[in-house]
Amino acid sequence: MTAVNTFVTMWRFLLTLGPSALVILMLNKGIKDQRPDIVDELHRVRTIFIEQLRPSYDFVIVGGGSAGCALAARLSENPAWSVLLLEAGGDEPLLMDLPQLYPVFQRSPWDWKYLTEPSDRYCLAMEDQQCFWPRGKVLGGCSSINAMMYIRGNRRDYDLWAQLGNPGWDYNNVLHYFRKAEDMRVPGFEESPYHGHGGPISVERYRSPSPLLELFMEAATQLGMAHPDGDFNGRTQTGFAPPHGTLRDGLRCSANKGYIRRSWQRPNLDIVLKAFVERLVIEPGSKRVRGVRFEHGLVQHLVLANKEVVLAAGALASPQLLMVSGVGPAEQLLPLGIDLVQHLPGVGGNLQDHISTSGAIYTFDSLKPGTHMSFIVPEQLTKESVEEFIQDQNGFFYAMPVSEVMGFVSTKYQVASMPHADWPDVQLFLGSYGYGADGGMIGRRGAAITLANYADTFEPIQYQDSFVIAPLLMRPRSRGYLQLRSSDARVHPLIHANYYDDPLDMAVMVEGLKMAHRLAQTPAMQRLNATLNIYEWRNCPEVEYLSDAFWECLARYYSQTIYHPVGTCKMAPAQDPYGVVDPRLRVRGLRNLRVIDASIMPTIPTGNTNAPTLMIAERGADIIKEDWHHYPHGGWL
């Protein structure tokens, strides 16, 4: 049975691929010819010629992702400072602007294509039982390939950072930096004390939702869980509402678009794209970081930093660069022949991520006979959709089906520990398509689900109206770690995600799936005859249907990252033996080196991590300015 289904799935996939590719080519040509706002020729970054590279800069920033773009823009505001930004990828291609197409760039040349180590406890439906971890290899980093959800996290997250011994990182302090980065454009928030206006990153609602959005909100209201003011980043977080996104005129507003395109022409800011940083240059005696070595165009280059090197390469590459440069756990570095410069056992540890369960897919009957209420992708990949996007600036390519409505809820475990706290432990994405909606072209490929599993569980509901309710575990107790495989920075480290190591994490996930099912049983959803895809039971036929064991099976098979790895260069006070950077983001035991990106987070925030990463960069830039203003030598001890 499986072999037959797999054969059918493969053939249908191949037959769909050609027409879909044709539409994408048509879309790309239409943008080039008729959408100068996307082409944006005047503001697109032009890298310097490598012959123009100065022998030294005041600041060398490694990584042009969300944090690196913000840092480059903010540090170069001081005309007396010279700044170099090194990014391994190139500029964003035109199609990256389109919200709907974000999954297309996963497992593409614009993605680093990381994989976790195989496990028998999660990602069981995935190829080789490995979780696929996309990371942006492009100017703008993950802000250029993500789903653009603008969620800051909970005020208690940042108060916890301060309580852990990191002064200045409490919510009242960091709110200023969230506001500084933001240009809130959603009507009704003009006077909100929680939001900023005129910042580099514009925030809007997603355009062109499906008819399901109103029904999702009706279901949440019937459970008494609609968000009181529709703002997860304001007074309270708990509840359901359509999310805000990092969008400008309905299109992606990446860190590249927001920060770099308005600053790259400054004479004191140089940018080199397709520059792969191989290691830091450190003086062993003084432990001063002098600069970096990088490869560009098959030629190696050395560039020195007069003041500081700033690592902003992300939660996977920043700790790896530290380790290959001799900074990290001695027991990892010495066996690989790496000279130990500074033993820091916390480098690469404390790895956290928001694991989700993406398999809870419900089919339903449309209330509009003869038309679909959810997104059926082949029906939308048409010449008419291209014209609607190009000419009317509306339609399918502006939509964000993966989470038309978002919810934050507290399970019984969170309520038991903090009965009245607004600190949800589960986030829910209510999406207007499932794995069967695109014939396996994008969703299956992006999640790395095996053809055999897809054929067994989703082929039977192919192109039917469906929706997904995916719970995310917000504050996992489990911790993973990175393990260096080679002294060569090009060799990806082993990623031990360790999802569900702590049994409470699975217990919370099961409660999240049960909450999702309760939403599907509301009168609003039952008007649609919403029905859980019964074929998913094939993964664990021995368990009782809809029992806790059934939901656990779903969680272990359809485990999927929501692209939020953090914590691998933990910010901590001096007494924490596993801290990597201090609250001023300086790397312990070294001079003239900071890490400023998602890797410094001591604990993962309650929500998507791009907005917190931008906040960290904004605050990090101010810290650098303060230190070098008050102390001519940067205040290094």
TrEMBL record:
Its cofactor is FAD. InterPro entries: FAD/NAD-bd_sf, GMC_OxRdtase, GMC_OxRdtase_N, GMC_OxRtase_C. One of its GO terms (molecular function) is flavin adenine dinucleotide binding. Keywords: FAD, Flavoprotein, Oxidoreductase. Residues 314-328 form the Glucose-methanol-choline oxidoreductase N-terminal domain. FAD binds at V138, V277. Pfam families: GMC_oxred_C (PF05199), GMC_oxred_N (PF00732). The keyword Flavoprotein applies. The keyword rRNA-binding does not apply. Belongs to the GMC oxidoreductase family. This is Glucose-methanol-choline oxidoreductase N-terminal domain-containing protein. It comes from Drosophila virilis (Fruit fly).
